[in-house]
Structures are given as structure tokens and as C-alpha cells.
Amino acid sequence: MAPVRRLVVDVLKPHDPPLLAFTQRLSELDSVEGASTSLVELDQEVQNVKVTLEGEDLDYDAVEAAVEELSGTVHSVDEVACGDYVVEDRPTPQDG
Question: Is the predicted pLDDT of residue 95 greater than 90, yes or no?
């Protein structure tokens, strides 16, 4: 099976741990080489965040388990890039 190189997931998490600690923890997973998170929505109880992870062969199950250990929930997988390299999204005539 082709390795997963990039994974973008929508996560619902409590305010604690803070976004910085949450992202650092995900970046420490064995299969993750880089991690970024963006706050999408905030309310009194939870944060909705977009999590982008990159690596040579990401382990989705480990990512989901880590999110759950941090009291979060993966709502959806919004982007996946697989193969020998990451194909960047580019505009096509159909987009116009």
C-alpha cells in the first residue's frame, strides 16, 4: 500500500491542552515529521482545529489515538496525500 505523506484532519478538542501543547504532542509521534494546527472555531467549551501532518509514512491509527488521548475527537479526514511524493493542489480548467 502507498505511504501516506500528508494528512489533514478536522478535530474537536477542549481548551486544555492548549493548542501549542496539542500540536507539540502530535509532532512527537514516530511517523510525524511535521505538524501544524489552525484554530477554525472557538466557543466556551471546545475548539475546532484543522490539523495538518506530514511524514514519510503517517500512521493514521496512531494519530487518532493521540488525539483521543488529548481528549479530542477526529471529526473528518479532509485531505490525504499518498505515494512517492506529495502532489500539490493546483487549479485546473474545471475550477474556473
Answer: no
Q: How many CA atoms lie within 13 A of 16 on its CB side?
A: 0
CB 32 within 8 A of CB 63: yes
Residue 30 has pLDDT above 90, yes or no: yes
Distance between CA atoms of residues 55 and 41, nearest Å: 26
DSSP H/E element including 78:
strand 73-82
Report the alpha-carbon distance of residue 34 to residue 27 in Å, rounded: 6
Using a cut of 0.70, tell me whether the model's pTM lies above it. yes
Contacts for 75 with CB less than 8 Å, ≥ 6 apart: 9, 10, 11, 12, 48
Q: How far apart are CA 74 and CA 76, in angstroms?
A: 6
Cis bond before residue 17 (omega within 30° of 0): yes
